[in-house]
Design brief:
The chain is mostly helical. The protein has twelve helices and no strands. It has one domain: MetI-like (MetI-like fold, Orthogonal Bundle), CATH 1.10.3720.10.
Length: 277
């Protein structure tokens, strides 16, 4: 009678091997940190990136002027872009062919262009093509940011409208509402509830894109964060001004990121269940 033999078990389980692998990665990371700390010239690093005297000289202007201007430019661009994006999304879903073609061409064109080219075109192209048109700095930045943002937000809004159940529109029509009124009062409010998280993400992207306004030039009172940092580099040595400007951007973007995560939890697929618990 044959005796069934079982293969010998290896000396280490998968869990132990995974734990050992993670431990080795931690050891490598600690060694890298220790070597970097021993080799670094901390005095030179502090002088280059964390010069306290330079930081003191940048405040409060970096907040009261540069940070405020960045927030204002972003808000104007987002508001203009959102309104334009809604029009483009409705045109893209229209039954009229030319509306769909114009909207589709606009969206694909400006999604494919670098934002810097849009800023240059609006800031220098429009004044050259139309000498009688006088655009101040705020309007120029608002147009450039709005054009860039609307191409992306239009597709987001269109996806949100399509995500609303078709029965909502049919129910409104059965109550005597016109198609346009039902869309504006029933469908679009529900669509915006769905797309709030991606719209918040677009606001973060526009905040960073506002840095491209430096190519337009500005007085000190008109400078946003990036241009303020570039100007400070000509006065103060080292990278401390850039570090300060970067931290100011984070003051805007981190709260917006937290807001986006909360909106996703609240309005995401499981948001309704989470809010009841």
């Amino acid at each position: 009678m044959a005796v069934e033999t079982r293969p010998a078990k290896s000396g280490m389980s998968k869990r132990k091997r995974a734990k050992l692998g993670r431990g080795a990665q931690y050891v490598v990371l600690v060694l890298i940190v220790i070597v970097a700390a021993l080799l670094a010239d901390w005095g030179q690093i502090q002088e280059a990136f964390f010069n306290v005297e330079v930081v003191r000289s940048l405040f409060p202007t970096v907040v009261t002027t540069a940070l405020v201007n960045t927030a204002v430019y972003t808000a104007l661009g987002f508001a203009f872009g959102l309104g334009l994006a809604l029009v483009l999304a409705l045109m893209r879903m229209s039954s009229v062919g030319p509306y769909r073609w114009i909207s589709g061409a606009y969206i694909e064109f400006f999604r494919g262009l670098p934002a810097l080219l849009v800023f240059l075109s609006v800031g220098f192209g429009i004044p050259n093509a139309f000498p009688n048109v006088d655009l101040n700095r705020k309007v120029t930045i608002m147009l450039a940011l709005g054009i860039v943002g609307s191409a992306y937000m239009a597709e987001t809004i269109r996806a949100g409208i399509k995500a609303v159940p078709g029965g909502q529109l049919e129910a409104a029509r059965s109550l005597g509402m016109s198609h346009g009124r039902a869309t504006m009062t029933i469908v679009i409010p529900q669509a915006f509830r769905i797309i709030l998280p991606p719209l918040t993400n677009e606001l973060i992207l526009l905040t960073k894109d506002s840095s491209l306004a430096f190519v337009l030039g500005a007085t000190l009172a008109q400078q946003e964060l990036t241009q303020f940092g570039r100007s400070a580099l000509t006065t103060y040595p080292g990278m401390t001004p850039i570090l300060v400007v970067g931290l100011c951007y984070l003051v805007i973007t981190i709260p917006l990121g937290i807001l986006q995560q909360r909106l996703e939890r609240r309005f995401g697929p499981d948001g309704g269940q989470g809010s009841k618990s």
